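[#protein-structures] MJ: dropping DUF1178 domain-containing protein here for a structure pass
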Amino acid sequence: MIRFSLHCDKDHEFEGWFRSNDDFDSQAEKGLVSCPSCGSNKVGKALMAPSVSTGRQKEKIAIAMSEMAKEMKEMVKKVRENADYVGAEFAEQARKIHFGEAEARGIYGEATPEDVEALLEDGVDVMPLPVFPEDHN
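AK: finished. structure tokens for DUF1178 domain-containing protein:
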């Protein structure tokens, strides 16, 4: 989808979304594009400034990503401090807890993608914990 800045013959400005430039041209030729303000179907594309990332925007993004990584690390730390590590038994233990066959408690461990899919199909809520490079040291 492409967003175009549009204008009518009465100088009203508005936006429209189209599959392609050709899609806009085809609809405009058939009179299917009209101004939401006055209803005119004499509509053209306005010049649009390209979206360019500045150094300041990149810096803001980098800071936000750094903050997000810190928060994720803190969340993983809290899970590990407050839950039982069950290793490769994770899928089995999670299913037992879910169906009331074992004491309800927080757990974490390892599971294959197939195990996770089966747990989700059984209605067991699971969430992957990210592994950070420093976790391998």
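MJ: nice. The radius of gyration is 27 Å.
AK: one more thing. Residues 2-45 form one domain.
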